[in-house]
Amino acid sequence: MAGRIQLFKPWFEEAEHQALRQPLETGWVGAGPKVKEFEQRFADYVGVKYAIALNSATAALHLAMLVSEVKDREVLTTPMTFVSTNHAILYAGGHPVFCDVEPGTLNVDPADLERRITPRTRALVVVHYAGHPCAMDEVVAIARRHSLTLIEDAAQACGGEYGGRKLGTIGDIGCFSFESKKNLSTGDGGMFVTDDEAVAERVRKLRWMGISRGTWDRFNNGHPARAWEYEVEEVGFKYGMNDIAAALGLVQLEKLERANTMRRAVVERYRQALAGLKGIELFDQRAYGGSAHYSMIIKADQRDALCDHLAAHEIESAVHFYPNHLLPIYQPYITPLPVVEAEWRRILTIPLYPHLAAASQDRVIACIRDFAAGAAS
Predict the structure, then answer these.
(1) What single-letter DSSP state applies at residue 86?
(2) pLDDT tens per residue, range 99-135
(3) Residue 289's beta-bridge partner residues?
(4) What is the DSSP letter of 179?
(5) How far apart are CA 341 and CA 80, in angstroms?
(6) What angle do CA 29, 35, 36 make, to 5 degrees?
(7) What's the Cα-to-Cα distance from 122 to each of 1, 77, 199, rounded to whole Å?
(8) What domains sit in the chain, N to C, each tagged with a CATH number?
């Protein structure tokens, strides 16, 4: 056996190792100049006015819900996501309203979303599943028609596009993840983006305990002897990114387009090799946008058996995700979602990362094709 093939794998090179030297040598490893530089460069890359670096996408989603004032109000959402998306609604005192999805993409179904709007609805959050864009023209029109705040969970979609715009910048607020396996990885981390100055200013305070001036600014701008002077106007959180993570982020951002191009090539190779296999179905690739190709997900009629077959050949696979509305914590919000409840039982994530070797991908493809042939016989 040639060794285990991982499901996800961050792509770090010598440049990332070198980038860590400066914050370690200067001794300033908290939120400082690297964070500020990363925020500005990320804002420029995606095309927004304000980017606020955080320690996770979960933090970004929580703050998005807080500034959207969802307490005691409804938030339209998808169950096909990591639980952070919907936990954030609960953190902020909101009520998740789960919507069904499109079978071809597992992104939220705009028609079902609009059907679930009530006078209590305050906001909606969309997740670009596996990095593939939602139908944003329709979603934006719904949000504007009903005066709802639109939050994009772009945790899986860094670098993806819709109609020539970067995902995460089309709604009122965008939330990104830089967790270890993501397209842009800082080990862990996140980014909150917006074009609203007032929202950005409030989020900057909330990420650091509600304090009006960050530590770097207080010690490096103005009179350091008076660095203890600041205001606290509301309860905040310890959600800021540090310069170690930001140093990695700057290098990863520089190579993001190259990495996503490499991901696209791996996906296209999978799609060509797996097309037409009996019992295997590929997801739609809609012409309206470009996927970030965070994960490669297929549908299999015998999903669990295929997972076991891959494992027997030292190939990792997984299911993304267990529908949130079926989890015990969300029982008060459970509602019938026929597409989700049918499709999630068929989905399987197979290995994908930029530097997945052709020989390793060939092993994955051969294993799936062998399984499909055996299942069909």
Answers:
(1) H
(2) 999 999 999 999 999 999 999 999 999 999 999 999 9
(3) 162
(4) -
(5) 10
(6) 135
(7) 54, 12, 16
(8) 14-255 (3.40.640.10), 257-376 (3.90.1150.10)
Residue 2: band (very low, low, confident or very high) from pLDDT cuts 50, 70, 90: confident
Output the six-digit token pair for 202: 């409030």
Percentages helix, strand, coil for the chain (3-state, rounded to 5) are 45, 15, 40
Segment 147-203, tens digit of pLDDT: 999 999 999 999 999 999 999 999 999 999 999 999 999 999 999 999 999 999 999
Integer Cα distance of 251 and 47 in angstroms? 19
Evaluated on CA atoms 322, 324, 328, 333, the torsion sign reads negative
The string of DSSP letters for 272-288 reads HHHTT-TTEEEPP--TT
Alpha carbons within 13 angstroms on the beta-carbon side of residue 97 total 19
- Structure tokens, 23: 């914050």
Query: Do 14 and 200 touch, CB atoms closer than 8 A?
Result: no
The pTM is what? 0.95
- Kindly state the helix (H) or strand (E) to which residue 56 belongs, with its residue range: none
- Which residues are part of the catalytic machinery? 182
Would you give the DSSP letter of residue 134? Answer: P
d(CA 78, CA 99): 5
Residue 16 has which token pair? Answer: 């990332």
Q: Which tokens hold the place of 6?
A: 């991982």
Q: How far is CA 163 from CA 134, 294, 347, in A?
A: 11, 19, 27
DSSP, collapsed to helix, strand or coil, labels residue 356 as coil
